Structure formats: structure tokens, C-alpha cells
Predict the 3D structure of the following.
Amino acid sequence: MKVKLAPLFVLAILATSVAAYAHHSFAATYDEAKTMEIKGKIVVFQFRNPHSFVTVEVTNADGKKVRWGVEGPGSTQLANSGIQNDTLRYGDEVVVSGNPSRTPGEAKLRMRTMKRPDGFSFGFTDAERRATEQ
Amino acid sequence: MVAPAAVAARRLQRPGDEANKAMKYQFVFVGITAALLGFGFAATVQGQRGGQQASPLRTAIYDPQQKIYYADSNDRTVRALPVRDNVWMIVGAGGNITVQTGDEGVLVVDTGSGGAMTDKVQALLRAISTKPIRYVLNTSYRPDHTSGNEALRGASAGGGGGGGGRGGGRGTPIAAHESVLARMSAPTGRSAPTAVNAWPSETYYKEFHDIYFNGEGIQMIHIPDAITDGDSLVYFRRSDVIAAGDIFLTTTYPVIDIKTGGTLNGVIAGLNKLLDLCIVKEKQEGGTMVIPGHGRISDEADVLEYRDMLTIVRDRVQDAVKKGRTLQQVQAAGLTKDYDGRYGATTGPWTTAMFIEAAYASLSKK
């Protein structure tokens, strides 16, 4: 009987495996006690699980261009919020607010809200934020 | 009368051996599972390659003498030629298409001019490998290199790992320099020149972009301001093959796209980079194989000749610009006469006069 169940057991393990690429705790990477805002142009939108990434090119006061890596919810959660793989496009001007990296000087942000001049906006309530962290 | 096979099977049975019986069930179970998984995989392959086709799939024809696959028995212009090991070149469907195959699947560099050619390209890809297309790389945004993107990308979501994957939820990932995406797409609210599903999903903006696929390191190397502002060389490091895109052609003068940031000096810089990567086998022959954007399979000697030709022409045009000659005077001066027999044209999409105009504009920039 033990022998007969062995393949089923292996199959069950394989079936319940999930990808864990780039999955990590937001709180460990970003300082959730702080919030900051950046304004710039989208140059990359990676619509993926478990977290999506947007790269925003920001022009500093001295004219120097800096690329900010903005991390947000996975594609499944974004899709549930009405965001598809072509909602954010190369060249879109956006204002993003979020939590900065815990590493000083690192151009990274955990996205809280995003706005675009055409009226598009994205943001979480506290309850939604908690849900995404589970 | 008992069949010999049945006798042999009976002889193998050990009466009362329960473990053997259990093993037999186990093999049957694993066999059924494998068959089901295999069916699912086959369906995926079908979905990616020919899911949108209602008519029977085209079958390529193989010529064992020349080791060439032809997409059509009547029209032998679209064909796949072996380059080295698991790398192939498809010609005749727009810009040359480089194909790398292996256990992980198929990777293609550029997708040709699309349209009626797509069916033929897909037939050749099916003949070269039964595996699905897992990666598409673009050397440029130009339509003769990207118009097949949407069809070859396939309809299935999640070409990479995890949800949207590297394909961004649009199927097989397409990698290219960031400028390629900028040229093919448009910000929200504006009309884009190409369909969303044709856009690259994996872009880079620095000098290199690395991919490891089918046990081989593959480098995309950005050549700034060459044919356009977003050209890439694609270097297959183990196979020692380089897909050069339109930076290197064996058929015409370079098709410098001034409006999208192309320059003659950028093309020459790209050819010099290409020469740095090439290693000849013996007496300036063989070694690294170079697949041009258009034309035949080449080696370092071919690239060297093209680079020298362009440098000489550049110097001649630059001298004329310095002397204050007008474009009409430069075009009439016959500065490319000694190379026109090989690369020139008076008719067609890219004439010698058009090349001189692009070179003149490029070298006149302050």
C-alpha cells in the first residue's frame, strides 16, 4: 500500500509547488515609516508575479537622470485592480509615492500610489495593503 | 499456439511476488501521468506555434545533400541553413532570422517581415525543432526585423516564470534595447505604430544584456547611434556565432536611419566592435560566424572588408562636406563608384543616392 501511494504523494507535492522568484518581505527592504514622492517617465513595466516592477526615469534638479526601481504588487493583484500588461506604457509621465529603501541613497521605492495626468490612479487603502502582505 | 512474446513475459513473472505486482501498478500509473503531461506539453507547443491557424500546417522540405530546409517546394527563397551546432539562419523572410535550439526550447533573433512570411518561418522552425519558442530577441525596431514578433510570440500567457513572467503576460518574452520599445510603442493616449503584443517585454538600456539559454551564454550588445539608436549585436558565446542585425549587410550599403538616431560613424563603430569579437580560424578564414541583417553567412574577413569600404567612403564624404560641397555635388561626384558594383543600387528600397544622402546628413551634423 505504501508503494502504491508513493507516486501520488510525489505528484501532490509537485502540484502544490509555487514559484517564489524575487519574493521577499516589503518591510525588510523598505522603510514603511517613511513616504516620499517621485515624478518622472516610465521606462520599464514588468508585469509579473510575485511582485511587479516599474522603472521611472526622474530628472533631478541638476538635470541628471536617475532611474528609480518601483516595486509593487504582483500581476494577479494588479489585474484584480484593473491594471493590465499594457496599462502602463513606455513614456507615460507618472507621480509615484511610496516607501524608500532602507539602504541609504538607493533609488528604490515600494509603490503606494501612482497617478498619471490622464486621470489614471492606483493606490491601496490600509486594509488592501495588509491583504497584499499576507 | 502461444505467441513467443507472451511466453517470454510469462517466464519473467515470479509466482507470489507481490512487490513485482505493486511495481507494475506503479509503472502503469507513472506511464499514464507521463502521457497526460506529454499531451499537455504537446498542446502547448501547438498553441504557441500554430494556434491561430485553421488550415493544415505547412511542412518544410529537407534537402539532405545541402542540409537545408525549404519552407515551400515551389518557392525555395525562404529557407533555413545550418550555421554551427544548434544555430540556424532563416533567410528570405525579410531580415535574416537566427535560430538557436536546445533542450530548453527555441530562441530566435529577429522575426522577419511577418505577414505571408510568418507561415513559412513557422514551418521552418517546426522542422528545426519540436520545442516551443521560449525567447525572441530583436536587433532593431525596423519592420523587416520585428514584423513577425506578434505571431512568433504566440498566444499563451506566461512565457517566462511566475505569472506574467518575462513576457509580461503577453506570451514569449521579447528582449531588445529600450529604444526598440520606444520606437514600437507610444505613451498612453497616443497611437502606437505597432500592436501591443509585438512590443518587447524585456528591455535593457546599458551596454549589455545577458541571457543564459540552452546551456549557452548569449550577450546582447548595444551599438549606439548606428543604423538606429537601438541596435544590438547578439553574441552566442559557446556556438561562436554573432547575429549582427543591420549593422553588417552583405547586400547593400548600410540602411542608416537618420530619423531614428542612425549615424555612419556609429555603424563603423559597430563594425569595429564586431571585429573585436570575431576570431578567425586560419588565414583570415572561418572561426567566428557572423549572420548579417541581410545576405549570406559571413566570417571576420567579410566584416573587415565591409568596415574598410565604409571607412573609405566615410572619409571621402567627410572631405567633401569639409570643402563645403552640397549634397547634389556629392551625389554627382561618384564617391562610391568602386563599390557600387557590389553594394550599390539605382532602384529599390535603398539606392546608392539614398545612402549618400544619409551619410552626408550624418557627417554634416555639428
Observations:
- Chain A has one domain: 21-133.
